[in-house]
Amino acid sequence: MTEFKLSLTGLHARNEATIQATQDWERGRIDSALLAAAFRDDTASLVRLQKDAGTDYITDGQMTTAWQDSLRPITSGFSGVKRGAMVRWYNTNTFYQAPVIDGPISSDGKAIWKKLEHRFVREGRFRISLPDPLTLSELSEDGYYHDREKAMFAFAEALNGELRTLEENGVEYVQLSSPALVARFRGKPLNRDALMQVGEAVRTTTKGISIGTGFHTFFGDASPYIPDIFDSIPTSDIGFDFTQTDPEALTRTRKGIIAGVADARTTYLESVEDLKAKIELVADRTGSRSITLAPSSDLRYIPRISADEKLTRLGALKKVLGGR
Amino acid sequence: MRLSKTFPTQEIGSLPKFSWRTKPFRQMELDDSDLISAKVWGDKLKVPRTGELLKILSKRAGFTETEKASIVDFSLLYAIRMNETAGDDLAEHRGLDLVWSGEQARTEMYETPVSNIEGFEFIGKVRSFDNKYWRMASIRSPPAYKSNYHIDELLFTQKHAKRKIKVPVTDAITIMAWSDNHHYTSKWAREKASPLRRSFNARREFTLDLAKIIRKVVRELIAKGVEEVQIDIPAASQYQSREDIKLVAESFNETTKGLSATFSVHSCFPPSLGYGILFPELLEMKNCERFSFEYGNRDGYRRGLSDEARQGFADLKLFKEYGYAKGLGVGVLHIHTDRLPSVDVVRDRILYSAKVTELDPGDLYVNPDCGLRTRRPEVAQRMLDLVVGGAEKARGELSAP
């Protein structure tokens, strides 16, 4: 029997009021208190939407200025890392400030926790998405280790301290987002040994952690890593972007699956029937006991109203599937 | 069109809009500072008939459509003058060699074309980075030509510019990549193909349908006497599969097919892999006489011509590796910061570019990394000064015994 869950998987689009507030704040028309209020309202509305849709986890959407890009709490909060040039975020029209490693990477373990909306964490079932060590190392300009693997493990050690703090404070699920594994230059995948090393880095990241963990691959085709990814990556769930990965490529696994079935890159709204057919194929191919219905990636590449519609549609899918 | 000069200079498209240009269109009342800005900049740039502008602006609110059109015309004039007088205290010979009117008549490089092509609907804002957003349009039916969205600004610029002009035109790949591909995604959603094939087919069909429309726009500009067109492809490096990069070249070739003009290409902000992902397919753009890319963004601020000092320009070596022998425009100023390099660092960036590409210095153009619309006018002006001043210093270095 498969349990069907529902969750968001990353940074969410800001609503129009928040967008206006950020622009007004930048132009000095409103103060920081009003900007913070806009973010509070926006987050609260997203939390309500998740509850209405029946999500099994709650995220705060990671929408505030602390998350100006997916890496920002790390490039702003870790020692040995500073913010560098503005670089395109994979195949999107969004950009991030590249991490520049200029010393040994470390953190006080609170860099991420400080950026969360604690009141929503206290409500329970809180989920957060963070870049995985492979993505962090591959996107970094390394002026210290001069070795991708060393940088990856240094990030993994620092992330581990962060995850421990998150767990201690009640966060219930950490998703490690790994576009780097699948969105590779002209599709050339990592070899098996390199995948094993990524797995070791994830093991370091999650060492001593007992809350739920996921490893979500998106923006590329993960089929070259199947079935090895299930054994190599030591998280409870493995995620796929099914706008890129053919579900037919899946194999049987004891892992949970984060099923990125709703295309997060377009407002085209898939029918519940089409989504259901895809999920049934995922369930059939994997035999997984736990499938999390999800958008293919973060829902920040389309306007908020459309992002919310995607989540609502996934909620309708969960109802049709019956939860279990 | 080749300029008989070493290290010619060019802008890359947009300039910031003055507050007196934007407020009337946002139904905002002008205040004293807006009028002072129009006066001070008008004097500085020696813009003719600014008294006429100041008289219109003194109304402060409730502008008629005719008055708004005059305000836009004046903003075009200010931008042309900014291009043509750049250099200030840094150069003996002032002004860029290739100029444009700063895209002052455009909302911006994406919104203007999609507002003038049938089939698009605006659906909301999407965050690009930090607190910067673009207004996304969704394609809901096959695109169709509606009107030429660059003719009026071209005619005005032709009339008032004293230097050679280059018209920036947004290409099909960029419009596709920045839009919500609703129509083509839904069309291909149930086709029997892999997810990767379906999404690529949706991108390709959308792009090539757009390219035909843009070709018509460009053809009409050429018919009005345009000699050089810059095809803007900031999204050239957005999709990174081999077939997507081939599509960038295919789209350019489709856009310029059968047209007779000098075509250049501008792109910027590639992924962490750099411009290498565009090679060698990029060189299949047979009609392209010059590639103008952003490099200053990734470079350091210290002087020198070593690989270490000029690490932001490392990708330039690709052109030599692939035997490229046409023109290049090198972006020497990072456009998303107010931190400016010294004119000597700009000079070194230019000289380093010449050294590693081994191109004829007459084929090596100097420009900011990208359009300057996100900077304040005084910063944008200083960046153009640095382009002109840095190029002049580099020329001096080259001709020194």
Task: Give a structural overview.
The complex is a heterodimer of chains A (324) and B (401). With 324 residues, chain A is of the alpha/beta class. Chain A has a single domain, classed as TIM Barrel (Alpha-Beta Barrel), CATH 3.20.20.210. Helix content of chain A is 39%, strand content 19%. In chain A, the strands form 2 sheets. Chain A has a 7-stranded parallel β-sheet. In chain A, a hairpin with a 6-residue loop joins strand 2 and strand 3. The longest helix of chain A is centred in the N-terminal third of the chain and has 22 residues. Chain A is globular, with a radius of gyration of 19 Å. The termini of chain A are close together. Chain B has 401 residues and is an alpha/beta fold. Chain B has one domain: TIM Barrel (Alpha-Beta Barrel). In chain B, a hairpin with a 2-residue loop joins strand 2 and strand 3. In chain B, 52% of the residues are buried. The model of chain B has no long low-confidence stretch (mean pLDDT 96). Chains A and B meet through helix 1, strand 2, strand 3 and helix 11 of A and strand 2, strand 3, helix 8 and helix 9 of B.
